[in-house]
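Note to self: keep these together.
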Amino acid sequence: MPKTPGTPRTPRTRTARSARPRTVRPVLWTGWAALAAGAVLCVLGWYGVSGERFAERQLPYLASCTVPGAALIVAGAVLLAHGREALAAARVEELYGLLVAAEPSEAAGEPVSAPVAVSGRLLMIPGGTLWHRADCPLVTGKPEAVPVDGRLLATGELAPCPICEPDSADD
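Structure:
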C-alpha cells in the first residue's frame, strides 16, 4: 500500500529511533563510573600495600581494595563494550528502518529496472579507458567527450562502460 504525501509516520518508527539510544547512555556512564572507581581502589590498595613492610599486613589492602578495584575495572570495560555495541546496533536498526520506510514509486510486485542510458551515439573521454552511450551519467555534460574512434574499439584499447553497458553494434 503506497503512502500518500500527507500520511504521518507511525508512532512506532519515532519511538524505536529515540528509545534505544536513551537506554544505552546509562550503561555507558555506569561503565565509565566503574572504571574510575576501580582505578581509585587500585591506587588506594597500592598505597596501603606500599606502606606495610610485612606480607600479613599487606593482605587486607589487597583483599579490600586491589582485588575489588580490578574487578570493577573489568566490569567497566565490559559495560563500555556492551554499551557501544548496543549503540551501534541502534544506529543500524534506525538506518534499516529508514531504508524500509522508503517505498518505491512503482507497484510493489513489479521490479523497477529503468535503463541508465539508451542513446545510440557512443562517446569517450580522451585519455580514458571506457566508451559510453551519449546519455551515460559519466559523460553527460562533459564538454571534452568526443565520438568514439572505431580504431580504438577494434584494437580493444577501450572497454565498454559498466554503468550504461554500450554495445558495439550501437555505433
